[in-house]
Amino acid sequence: MTSPVILQAAGGNSLYSTIIPMVLIMIVFYFFMIRPQVKKAKDHKKLVEGLGIGDKIVTTAGIHGKIVGSNDTTFLIEVEGGTKIRFDKSAVSLDATKAATTAATPKA
């Protein structure tokens, strides 16, 4: 004798029971993975565009320096002892000038 559960699972309803979970997984994936990465990329682009000569920065490698030159894709930064290093703009992780001023202001 065939069980009614097996017959019900083999019915025409299987298309919806497959597509709906896949669509829900894609929606969750978008909101938890893709959207935050796009926002982070926009914020980084805005940070790099706002930097100029004289700003202090920290690179992704942890090198602290001051911007002394710039072109389309790179920054020339001066580190301790007057050494100058050229870094790609995408390697900047923090604007230390703004971070220092926000840390120095007392909260009321």
TrEMBL record:
The family note in this entry says: Belongs to the YajC family.
Q: Where in the cell is it found?
A: Cell membrane
Q: What is this protein called?
A: Sec translocon accessory complex subunit YajC
User: Per the UniProt record, which residue ranges are transmembrane?
Assistant: 15-34
Q: Which UniProt keywords apply?
A: Cell membrane, Membrane, Protein transport, Translocation, Transmembrane, Transmembrane helix, Transport
Record PANTHER family: SEC TRANSLOCON ACCESSORY COMPLEX SUBUNIT YAJC (PTHR33909)
Q: Which organism is it from?
A: Pedobacter boryungensis
Q: Check the record and name the Pfam families matching this protein.
A: YajC
Under NCBIfam families, the record lists: yajC
Major place of residence? membrane
Question: Topology in the membrane?
Answer: Single-pass membrane protein
